[in-house]
């Protein structure tokens, strides 16, 4: 089976030859990766394996972009690692714990007095550990529209929106993945160090641990060995004009297979680099890798002999064929990453991809981990391919029966005078102004504090619309229903939104914009667009 011609990286330790863990072979890796790459249409993948203290495998497959003429992926190609950034943020906090500047049980307001959530009693009792375990009581993906979807909100602005996020469950009772509180964790790092999160992570973690081809800031013009995610243009900004995203502490790092593999070496070695430099303590590593909040079992639990799943601080963990497995995934900018450890086998596996489909990384990670743990593996590529096909079939059936444009919800044409009811400026407490205007025959929606979150509204009966976003490459999966509300006099006074698809990070359901103006300048919008 043909793969890209990238050299195998092998750095033997003194006293023994570096080799792959028992049960895993180069052929098994290559076959699994190429099957997944074809099954899920992934342009490029980088994989690294760490075993017994060595990086015993680091390899690139496929190409750096959707463009079939793009250069091949290699072991130093930069990928966005998304939420695998979270372990860097928790490790930065762990360093502060090691230094005696912080305790996991400290109240957040004792270090960030401006910190607020919707419930004052919860604000007073919110601990540093509560920022990290996804059991705050906020809903799944709460506040992600301040972080993603072209948002230009700064971290102080994001923190200012935090008190308006609704609680959907009692405090510390239910798991709901949350990026917003990791931004708060990054702000805590900044407050206690007096430096930016980017500076701390770059100097005290990436540089201190010697991670090659790894950075805490986005890639910029002049960097050539970088992957382009699904739907991205690949146009890089000038460094002088680089705008640091508010989401960075939850998902902003770019790294290569080599860089992540050395990060894995450091973790497996209890916070110590291969050369013996202690970056963080083993006690802190063990705290980060300890279960702090229980999670539901996965659908694959019976097949992988999994009896528990939990979240630590920036890491998932579970039992896997009788061994402890620690892992995390990351999805951002059309890319997906996966990092998994089997500490009892002294092994870690890194997977980086440039396609927005977690099934590919799940298939590769589960297959390779099973080889390490048991010497054999079920066909996990086929398993997740079947699951993906079934999900697509269900979505198509729902769209045909009740989706927009179906017989149950037919599109209608509105007169110009009826369109006028909806035009104006709406304000949401945490996301800010949203405008509805008319351009030609179309109603248009535009979010403030965003570089291009704009779209066209198509009418359905009963004040219901669908907004179809302009950027089909990045935002097509976030097309949303928009339900306008009227008061007893018949005036439009607000709206609610809900994403049509399943992207939990487009948390439109948490928006409650109220109409604050009944006019909007088409000329101003045209200039802004």
UniProtKB/TrEMBL annotation:
<dbReference type="GO" id="GO:0016787">
    <property type="term" value="F:hydrolase activity"/>
</dbReference>
<dbReference type="InterPro" id="IPR001466">
    <property type="entry name" value="Beta-lactam-related"/>
</dbReference>
<dbReference type="Pfam" id="PF11954">
    <property type="entry name" value="DUF3471"/>
</dbReference>
<dbReference type="InterPro" id="IPR050491">
    <property type="entry name" value="AmpC-like"/>
</dbReference>
<feature type="signal peptide">
    <location>
        <begin position="1"/>
        <end position="17"/>
    </location>
</feature>
<keyword id="KW-0378">Hydrolase</keyword>
<keyword id="KW-0732">Signal</keyword>
<dbReference type="Pfam" id="PF00144">
    <property type="entry name" value="Beta-lactamase"/>
</dbReference>
<protein>
    <submittedName>
        <fullName>Serine hydrolase</fullName>
    </submittedName>
</protein>
<feature type="domain" description="Peptidase S12 Pab87-related C-terminal">
    <location>
        <begin position="415"/>
        <end position="512"/>
    </location>
</feature>
<dbReference type="InterPro" id="IPR021860">
    <property type="entry name" value="Peptidase_S12_Pab87-rel_C"/>
</dbReference>
<feature type="domain" description="Beta-lactamase-related">
    <location>
        <begin position="38"/>
        <end position="369"/>
    </location>
</feature>
<dbReference type="InterPro" id="IPR012338">
    <property type="entry name" value="Beta-lactam/transpept-like"/>
</dbReference>
């Amino acid at each position: 089976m043909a793969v890209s011609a990238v050299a195998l990286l092998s750095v033997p330790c003194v006293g023994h030859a570096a080799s792959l863990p028992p049960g895993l072979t180069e052929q098994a890796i290559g076959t699994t990766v190429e099957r997944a790459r074809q099954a899920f249409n992934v342009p490029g993948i980088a994989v690294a394996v760490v075993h017994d203290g060595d990086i015993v495998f680091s390899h690139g497959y496929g190409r750096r972009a959707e463009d079939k003429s793009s250069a091949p992926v290699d072991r130093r190609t930069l990928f966005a690692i998304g939420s695998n950034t979270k372990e860097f943020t928790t490790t930065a906090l762990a360093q502060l714990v090691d230094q005696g500047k912080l305790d996991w049980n400290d109240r957040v307001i004792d270090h960030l007095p401006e910190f607020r959530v919707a419930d004052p009693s919860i604000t007073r009792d919110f601990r540093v550990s509560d920022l990290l375990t996804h059991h705050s009581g906020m809903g799944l993906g709460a506040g992600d529209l301040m972080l993603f979807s072209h948002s230009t909100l700064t971290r102080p602005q994001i923190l200012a929106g935090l008190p308006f996020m609704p609680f959907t469950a009692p405090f510390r009772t239910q798991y709901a993945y949350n990026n917003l509180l990791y931004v708060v964790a990054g702000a805590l790092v900044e407050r206690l160090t007096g430096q930016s999160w980017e500076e701390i992570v770059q100097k005290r973690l990436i540089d201190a641990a010697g991670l090659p081809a790894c950075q805490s800031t986005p890639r910029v013009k002049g960097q050539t060995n970088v992957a382009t995610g699904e739907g991205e243009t690949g146009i890089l900004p000038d460094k002088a004009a680089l705008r640091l995203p508010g989401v960075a502490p939850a998902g902003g790092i770019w790294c290569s297979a080599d860089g992540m593999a050395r990060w894995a070496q450091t973790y497996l070695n209890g916070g110590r680099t291969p050369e013996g430099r202690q970056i963080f303590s083993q006690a802190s590593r063990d705290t980060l890798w300890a279960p702090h909040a229980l999670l539901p079992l996965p659908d694959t639990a019976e097949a992988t002999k999994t009896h528990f799943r939990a979240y630590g601080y920036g890491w998932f963990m579970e039992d896997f064929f009788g061994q402890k497995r620690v892992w995390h995934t990351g999805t951002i900018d059309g890319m997906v990453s996966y990092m998994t450890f089997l500490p009892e086998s002294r092994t870690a596996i890194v997977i980086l991809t440039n396609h927005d489909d977690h099934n590919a990384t799940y298939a590769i990670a589960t297959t390779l981990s099973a080889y390490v743990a048991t010497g054999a593996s079920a066909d996990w590529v086929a398993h997740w391919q079947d699951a993906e096909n079934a999900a697509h079939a269900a979505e198509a059936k729902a769209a045909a029966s009740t989706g927009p444009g179906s017989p149950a919800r037919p599109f209608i044409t509105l007169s110009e005078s009826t369109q006028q009811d909806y035009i104006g400026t709406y304000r949401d407490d945490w996301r800010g102004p949203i405008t509805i205007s008319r351009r030609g025959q179309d109603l248009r929606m535009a979010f403030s504090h965003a570089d291009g979150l704009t779209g066209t509204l198509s009418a359905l009966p009963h004040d219901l619309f669908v907004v179809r976003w302009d950027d089909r490459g990045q935002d097509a999966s976030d097309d949303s229903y928009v339900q306008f509300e009227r008061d007893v006099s018949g005036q439009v006074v607000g709206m609610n939104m809900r994403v049509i698809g399943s992207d939990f990070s487009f948390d439109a359901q948490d928006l409650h914009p109220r109409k604050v103006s009944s006019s909007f300048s088409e000329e101003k919008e045209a200039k802004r667009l």
